[in-house]
Every structure is written in structure tokens, then in C-alpha cells.
Specification:
With 345 residues, the chain is an all-alpha fold. The protein is 77% helix and 0% strand. It is globular, with a radius of gyration of 22 Å.
Length: 345
């Protein structure tokens, strides 16, 4: 957090940021952000009881999404209204506030471990840690699930581009795809935490129900792309009750339902990941969870790197058919999910 504070403060002193400097700044911010994400998760694993994981992950996921939507959007508006130097200064003040909050924490120190690494090379250390992590029961299954369940979510990013290509007015699309869709995702994360904590659902039950439900909006989007076609929508068509109006609002419904399910699945998946990591030996708990979190992000990004090329080769309809198959494939996989520790107190 201190690194991000210093970086943003230095940026506020510059009148303009050349491309090379901006690239370096973004690299530093993303590197520091990833490090503090792992640290926060490590603290959560240490201080939360199994019965508190659902509520803890809900707070973390919902706060992250609200921060991205409200604070991030507000600061971008400030950058346009007051200049980018003022925006970077506000960024630095936010990070400074976070640093002060962290300094006020009083955490119990971890117990010393007897596992020694003196004299071992970094390669052997990584190999030994990875071997110990994979020996934790349920880890291999969780890695497989995380790689698959995120792949089909690439459709959430592709479908709005389809609407842009249909010449949907950007102001209308910004409201429905931005504000309403983000609200659905936040609501889903909150309800996911409620089910996991107040209703004492097991992560497996939540994942099973909403991975099954998630197939519906992706299938619906496949049908919309196939039947609505690629022709542009006349500008005034959406102001009256027309076929294009029906297609547009069904599209928005599919996006909201998909993001609602995705919000629930994110909370449930992170709860299951933390529950599994808490069962690992204390000396590798943080590393164990870091591996799972890395795999979760990797599963989301790996398909994003090639999806554009695949769309160019086979078209949107076939691409969304692949998304649908991927979404459906996670359902039978969940039947083999190892039993985890009970979340209820």
C-alpha cells in the first residue's frame, strides 16, 4: 500500500505522463495490488473461522466491486473535470488512508514452523512447496474446477461488444450494461454470502445450483446472436415497442442474470478456496491459497487471449456455443467436489 501511495503521489507531481512512464506506473500499481491482495487473503485465512468465511468473503467481494464502480468511476470523472494531477493526488490520499488503517491492525503472530529451508535453492524451494500444496486433499480437484468455471465467463465481456456493433446508443448501453449490470453482480455476491452464512448452505450446494442456472443466460445470448443477426439497429427503434426493443431488453436481462449468477459463484468459490486452504499445514496456507487465486485469474484470462482470434475464425454463434458447453461442463464436475469443513458455527 505504501508503494502505491508513493507511486500515485509522484504521478501527481507530473504535468503529463508519457506512454513509457504510464506503462511503468501501471505495472508497479498492478504488481503492488496483486501482492496486497494475497496479503489480505492470507490475513483472512488466519483470522476467520470456518463459520465466518461466507460473511468474510461477501464483505471482501462486495467492497471490491463497490470500490471499482463508485470510487474508480468517480476518480475518472475527477480526472476529466479537475485534471489528472488532481486525480493522482486523490488516489495517493486513498492509499495513505489505507496505510494508516493497516498500521492500526493488531494481528496475532503466526506460530513458528519446524520446516527449514536453509541452504535450499529457490528452485528446490518452489518444487518442495508445490509438492506439499498438491498433497493437500482436494487441491487437484479445486485447481481443475477453477480453470474450467471461469472460461465461459468470457462471454460477459464479448456480448456487450456485440451490442456495440449493433449500434446501440452508447449512453443507453452505458446505463444498462454499466450501472444495472454491475448492481446485479454486487447483489449476487451479497446473496451468495447470505446463503453461505445466514442460511448455512454448503459452498458445493451454492455452486451446483448457480452453475446450472448460469447456463441459461449464456444459452439465451447464443440464441439472440443467432436470431437478431449482425445488422445495425436504427437509432429511433429502441424508443418504441419494436422487435429490436424486445431483443435489446432480453439481452440486458441475460447480462444481468449472468452477472447475478457470477457474483454468487465468485463468493462461493472464494469461500470454498479459503476453506480448503485452512485445512492445509499452517506453514503453506498462504502459499496454498495464492496458488488457487492465481489459477482462478489464469482461468479467466487464458481464454481471453485467444477468444478474439477464435471469434474471427468461427463467428460469434459458434463461440457462444462453446461458452455454453463450458458452462454446462462445470455442473457434472461439481458432483466430484470433495467434502469440506462445515461452515456453520
Amino acid at each position: 500500500m505504501s508503494c502505491m501511495f508513493v507511486t500515485c503521489f509522484l504521478c501527481s507531481l507530473l504535468t503529463e505522463l508519457p506512454l513509457a512512464t504510464l506503462s511503468l506506473v501501471l505495472f508497479i500499481l498492478n504488481l503492488a495490488s496483486a501482492t496486497q491482495d494475497i496479503t489480505v487473503d492470507s490475513v483472512a485465512i488466519r483470522i476467520l473461522q470456518p463459520s465466518e468465511l461466507g460473511a468474510g468473503n461477501t464483505i471482501q467481494v462486495v467492497a471490491y466491486k463497490l470500490g471499482a464502480v463508485l470510487v474508480g468511476g468517480s476518480l475518472l470523472w475527477v480526472g476529466e473535470a479537475r485534471g489528472h494531477s488532481f486525480m493522482w493526488l486523490l488516489f495517493s490520499l486513498l492509499y495513505l488512508t489505507a496505510v494508516c488503517l493497516v498500521m492500526s491492525l493488531n494481528l496475532v503472530q503466526s506460530k513458528p514452523t519446524n520446516h527449514k529451508y536453509d541452504g535450499e535453492s529457490p528452485v528446490l524451494l518452489i518444487k518442495d512447496n508445490l509438492s506439499r500444496i498438491l498433497k493437500v486433499e482436494g487441491t487437484v480437484w479445486m485447481v481443475s474446477f477453477l480453470l474450467i468455471y471461469k472460461l465461459c465467463e468470457r462471454g460477459e465481456g464479448v456480448f456487450p461488444i456485440f451490442l456495440v456493433d449493433k449500434k446501440i446508443p452508447l449512453q443507453r448501453l452505458a446505463f444498462w450494461n454499466g450501472v444495472v449490470r454491475s448492481s446485479a453482480s454486487i447483489l449476487g455476491s451479497a446473496i451468495g454470502g447470505f446463503l453461505l452464512s445466514s442460511r448455512s448452505w454448503k459452498p458445493k450446494d451454492v455452486l451446483m445450483v448457480f452453475t446450472s442456472t448460469r447456463v441459461l443466460p449464456i444459452l439465451l445470448q447464443t440464441w439472440i446472436i443467432s436470431s437478431w443477426g449482425q445488422d445495425s439497429v436504427p437509432e429511433d427503434d429502441l424508443d418504441a415497442f419494436t422487435v429490436n426493443t424486445c431483443y435489446f431488453y432480453v439481452s440486458i436481462f441475460s447480462l444481468c442474470l449472468g452477472n447475478f449468477c457470477a457474483g454468487i459463484l465468485t463468493t462461493a468459490a472464494f469461500t470454498a478456496m479459503m476453506n480448503l486452504s485452512q485445512g492445509a499445514p499452517e506453514s503453506i496456507r498462504s502459499t496454498h491459497y495464492s496458488l488457487l487465486a492465481t489459477v482462478e485469474v489464469f482461468g479467466k484470462l487464458i481464454f481471453a487471449t485467444v477468444s478474439g482470434w477464435i471469434i474471427d475464425q468461427v463467428g460469434l454463434v459458434w463461440m457462444f456455443s462453446i461458452f455454453t458447453v463450458m458452462a454446462a461442463s462445470t455442473v457434472p464436475l461439481l458432483k466430484y467436489m470433495p467434502e469440506q469443513r462445515k461452515l456453520a458455527a
